[in-house]
Amino acid sequence: MPQPQLKVAFPPSSSPTPFETFHSSVYPPITTNGPSKPGATSLVPHPFIISARVNTQAPPDVTDCSDRNYSKYYVVVVQYTARFNAETVKNFLYALNNGKISKKKFNMRLAPEETSAKLTGYEHNGVTCIGMKTDIPVILDEAITKLNPDFFWLGGGEIDLKWGIRTSEFINYVKPFIVNCSGS
Question: TM segments (predicted)?
Answer without folding.
Answer: none
